[in-house]
């Protein structure tokens, strides 16, 4: 999971490092599910577009740095969904501005 600044879809150096570390630990992923999320601030259509932009930023980073994963990448985004924390505090909203990346492997690879 990587987090984003308010209203932003740019990957921080820390986020890039976390993504690279996870990708290197899962060299044989059969599917990489990338899910973009936002907090509840702002119009739903803006949050939906921002959630998608965040997920696409992660996808593009993985394509560029780990091209072997490109065929396995899937993107999904929901701005008004799946909150990790309540949106009534700044710290809760910060936790909700995220992209979750799940590396799925075949059972025999475990």
Report on the architecture of this protein.
It contains 3 helices and 4 strands, in the order βαβαβαβ. The chain has 110 residues and is of the alpha+beta class. It has a single domain (2-109), classed as OmpA-like domain (60s Ribosomal Protein L30, Chain: A), CATH 3.30.1330. Strands 1-4-2-3 form a 4-stranded mixed β-sheet. α1 packs across α2 (44-65).
Quickly name the level 1 CATH class. Answer: Alpha Beta
Strand count:
4
What's the CATH architecture name?
2-Layer Sandwich
Oligomer: single chain
What is the number of domains? 1
The N- to C-terminal Cα distance equals 21 Å
The parts where pLDDT drops under 50 for at least 5 residues are none
Structural class: alpha+beta
Question: Helix share of residues?
Answer: 25-40%
What coarse outline follows from CA principal-axis ratios? elongated
* Radius of gyration, CA atoms, in whole angstroms: 14 Å
According to CATH, the fold-level topology is: 60s Ribosomal Protein L30, Chain: A
Record keyword descriptors for this entry.
single chain; 110 residues; alpha+beta; 60s Ribosomal Protein L30, Chain: A; 4-stranded mixed beta sheet
How would the blueprint of this fold be written?
Layout: E1 2-3, H1 13-25, E2 31-36, H2 44-65, E3 73-77, H3 90-96, E4 98-104
Parallel strand pairs: 2-3
Antiparallel strand pairs: 1-4, 2-4
Helix pairs in contact: 1-2
